[in-house]
Amino acid sequence: MRRDGISRTMADKSTSSDATTVKLPETPAAPPRKIYPIVKYGDPVLEKPGATVRTFDAALEELSEDMFASMYAAQGVGLAAPQVGKGIRLAVVDVSNGKNSEAKIVLVNPEIIHAEGEVREEEGCLSIPGFRGYVVRPQFVTVKAQNLKGEPFEIRGENLLARAFCHEIDHLAGVLFLQHLSMLKRDLIKRKIKKLRKEGEW
Ligand SMILES: [Zn+2]
């Protein structure tokens, strides 16, 4: 999920061009990581349900760390594996923007097992840069997932964290936030993207 999608102050002045002026979170003593390019809307990998992860090995751990690095580089608060071209049920979330290492959450094969309340807030997506829309999400969710060792756990999220969980778990089902918008708003965004693509800017 895109960070400025949920912050009004950022949203007001956010364009794809000012992303370069935002200070990147510092990651001291972190080993060099692969920064994946973020797959953009239109790539079929984004609209296909991801495969269940069954192998919990070093490669999965590497991928999740590379996904955190790619997410921080792109100013996001959540990133799903299909957004880096991997069609598996893995997502990373950090609503602290890398400021707090304890806020790093890896979700393997996650599912929402409880949801409560409703919040309508503006949302964006790293795969749909430059576009935002209001999406109603639960205020609280409980997610059941596995960690990188394959151990099951449950985690509860509220407000922004709940929104990030819902947004990323949607990605793992091949669902984008566009699908939660009104048909009018969705078609408008799709038309604009089509135009950008024609101009070679997407
Ligand atoms: Zn997204």
Task: Write up what this structure looks like.
By secondary structure, the protein is an alpha+beta fold. It has helices at residues 8-13, 58-73, 160-172, 183-198, and strands at residues 78-80, 90-93, 105-116, 119-124, 132-137, 140-146, 152-158. The protein has four helices and seven strands, in the order ααβββββββαα. The strands form two sheets. A five-stranded antiparallel β-sheet has the order 1-2-3-6-7, sandwiched between helices. A two-stranded antiparallel ribbon has the order 4-5. β6 and β7 form a beta hairpin. The longest helix is centred in the N-terminal third of the chain and has 16 residues, at 58-73. The model is unreliable at 5-19 (pLDDT under 50). Residues 1, 125-127, 167, 171 line the site of zinc ion.
Keywords:
single chain, 202 residues, 5-stranded antiparallel β-sheet, two-stranded antiparallel ribbon, 4 helices
